[in-house]
């Protein structure tokens, strides 16, 4: 059964490890230099979001991070991608936390399609990410129930 709990500082190492494996699996458009840049700044931002650890049978599935009603982080261990865990987590977050906004790397077609298939709609797009790096961002909103 999929379970959740609030993350704490002792979880940060596992969170970074999942982030790293997940990004290497899904963000093949990132340069090595930029991957290392993001890997360095992710830990600096973990305290600013509401982090949740998701597990099944005591095995770490992934983590999510919220900032009010915006999902700012959802990363799964690659072993769990494509097995409906993301859908279950996202549905729970929408139903219980009122998530209605997500930013996604435009080049991460799989993630963009995933959110669009779950009732999110494109609101706008930016040519660069929040750090001015050449990774377009698609801003998604959810106006209807899935």
From TrEMBL:
Q: Does the keyword Chaperone apply?
A: no
Keywords of this entry: Acyltransferase, Transferase
Keyword tRNA-binding listed? The answer is no
N-acetyltransferase domain spans which residues?
Answer: 10-146
InterPro entries from the UniProt entry = Acyl_CoA_acyltransferase (IPR016181), GNAT_dom (IPR000182)
Q: Please list the GO terms describing molecular function.
A: acyltransferase activity, transferring groups other than amino-acyl groups
Q: Which residues, by range, are in coiled-coil regions?
A: none
Task: Give the protein name, as stated in the record.
Answer: Acetyltransferase
| Source organism of this protein record | Enterococcus rotai
């Amino acid at each position: 059964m999929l379970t959740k709990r609030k993350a704490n500082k002792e979880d940060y190492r596992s969170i970074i490890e999942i982030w790293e494996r997940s990004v290497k699996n899904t963000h093949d458009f990132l340069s090595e230099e930029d991957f290392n840049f993001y890997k360095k700044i992710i830990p600096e931002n973990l305290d600013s979001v509401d982090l949740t650890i998701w597990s099944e049978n005591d095995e770490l599935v992934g983590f999510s991070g919220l900032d009010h009603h915006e999902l700012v982080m959802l990363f799964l261990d690659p072993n769990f991608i494509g097995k409906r865990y993301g859908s279950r987590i996202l549905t729970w977050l929408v139903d219980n936390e009122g998530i209605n906004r997500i930013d996604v790397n435009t080049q991460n077609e799989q993630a963009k399609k995933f959110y669009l298939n779950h009732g999110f709609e494109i609101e706008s797009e930016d040519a660069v990410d929040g750090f001015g790096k050449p990774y377009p961002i698609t801003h998604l909103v959810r106006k209807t129930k899935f």
